[in-house]
Amino acid sequence: MNFMPEINSLAQKDLSSCTSSPEAEQQLLGALLTNNETYSRVLGVIDTSDFYDPVHQRIFDKIKERIDAGQLASPVTLKAAMQNDEGLAELGGPKYLVRLAGAAISSFAVVDYASIISDLSAKRQMLASFDDARLRIEGGDAAAAIATDVETAAGGLLNKTSVKPLIRSHLSAIIGAVQQINDAYQGVSPPGVPTGLGRLDAAIGTMRGGDMILIGARPSMGKTTLAQNFIFNAAEAGTGVFFPSLEMNAEAVATRFLSLGLARRKATIPYNRMLKGDLSEAEMRALVEESKRQESLPIYMGERDVREVSRLRAAAKRAKQRMDDSACPLGLIVLDYLQLIQSSRAKSTYDRVSEASDLCKSLATEMNVPVVALAQLSRQVEQRDPPTPMLADLRESGKLEEDADVVMFTYREAYYLERRLNNLGGGDVEKEADLRAALERCHDKMDVIIAKQRSGPLKTVPLYVDLATSNVYDDRSHVADGLI
User: Fold this and answer.
1) Nearest-CA neighbor of 438 among 430, 427, 428?
2) Going along 148-253, which residue ranges are E strands?
3) CA distances (Å), 92 to each of 280, 327, 410, 455, in order?
4) pLDDT attached to residue 401
5) Quick one: average pLDDT of 162-178?
6) E strands within 394-480?
7) Mean pLDDT across the chain, nearest whole number?
8) Is 77 found in the same domain as 196?
9) Are residues 339 and 399 in the same domain?
């Protein structure tokens, strides 16, 4: 006779007693029904799904619904709203609501009970994750995929159980503000991560913890190149960087960093030649030396298969854990690019981009680091003359503009001049000469248009770019750089 089903059933009952507390749920619901003011104290600590008993979930939902609407939530008002609830009827109907209120705890203990219920909910979710992993192991799924999903689930639960306060006194804010002002007055370097580009730093200051910085552009405008310079400059200064490039694999990104670093040492080797292996012996030797120099840079990359929101969050947490134990803790996250983020919950492109925007802003605030997110702009940019971008070009979601603390656009006039020159087709010698002259003047120029900034002016910052080596400069000193 097989006793395993009975043993498993007993195990489930035993685990149920460890992962739920009907008494705590009853006490908390009773306190809310007795004093609606206590609702604000548990807001952010607990939600409907945290209750184990489905009837308690529905009672909490009705309480929340009425209080959010500015209405009274009591046994009397809930009686009408839940008169057809079969589960409540089995527990005694409206009399059960009265019993809950009668056995209510004192209001000072509501946060403790809410924390207990939230913690038990997290344990149930952990068990569900482990059960799913066991089934997948039995089904023959790859260990790496199972481990990643378990870690992702655990990361989400860690974030859920790390409750942050909802309020902060004006006094504490004033103290922090005066400290920052005094540091600036004393000439102390401002908090945050510099871009490493003098002109841009003068315009926006540093990239501060909690800020979401959006870089938008059409393709070939140099937005990824600009972001890679932020990463390289920060890493060289000893700041840990997490760079989940959803568009390129880690090797392609590393190739660009090698080309970038070599060019700064007067050894210009375009990365496309590296990819083709079109190198002299001297260039190959220089490349190997540069790779040795860069191997200690505190940069962690994310693979393209971390595109899903929950996986990205888990990857960021893993990168933070690894770097926080090193000499260069995490200080910057750069994400390329935002529209490639996936969400299983999103029902439309608008929802998906909005959730991606929420992810970037929440990572910035939770980890207290600046998050630089790249975004593709809509084609309507190119229907204007000149095709300079503006805030309205942020496609799919106004949430991007709303969440971002700084919005900057990259614009290269040379790209459009080259297209006009190629489309000219010959015949108009004078026009062709004018286009070539204009292209020569701006061939390496890249304007950074600051279209939104919460703490500074809106302006256009002229920079110079060498796309072949992924370098951005404040001036044209790079023009003198020669090949090896």
Assistant:
1) 430
2) 212-217, 240-244
3) 86, 61, 65, 58
4) 82
5) 71
6) 406-411, 445-453, 459-466, 471-473
7) 84
8) no
9) yes
What CATH number corresponds to the domain at position 476?
3.40.50.300
Taking CA atoms, 406 is separated from 208, 298, 365, 373, in Å, by: 11, 25, 15, 10
Containing structural domain, residue 217 = 192-411+444-480
8-state DSSP, 44: T
Q: Is-contact 269 484, C-beta < 8 A? A: yes
The residue type at 166: L
Tokens of 205: 């200051």
Helix axes 54-68, 22-34, angle to 10 degrees: 20
Same domain, yes or no: 405 and 315: yes
Q: DSSP per residue over 235-282, as a string?
A: HHTT-EEEEEBSSS-HHHHHHHHHHHHHHHTT----HHHHHHT---HH
Among residues 116, 144, 161, the one where a domain terminates is 161
Amino acid found at 139: G
Per-residue model confidence as pLDDT tens digits over 183-234 = 777 877 777 899 999 999 999 988 999 999 999 999 989 999 999 999 999 9
178 located within any domain? no
What total of structural domains would you count in the chain?
A: 2
Contact of 442 with 418, CB cutoff 8 Å: no
Total residue count of the chain as it appears in this document: 484
Assigned token pair, 386: 């000149």
Integer Cα distance of 219 and 235 in angstroms: 26
Distance CA 436, CA 434 (A): 5
Range scoring the smallest mean pLDDT among 95-99, 207-211, 394-398, 462-466: 394-398
Among 56, 69, 67, 62, residue whose Cα is nearest residue 29: 56
Contact 425, 435 (CB under 8 A): no
pTM over 0.90: no
In sign, the C-alpha dihedral spanning 377, 378, 380, 383 is: positive
Sign (positive/negative) of CA torsion 387, 371, 163, 356? Answer: positive
User: Which tokens belong to 168?
Assistant: 């902060």
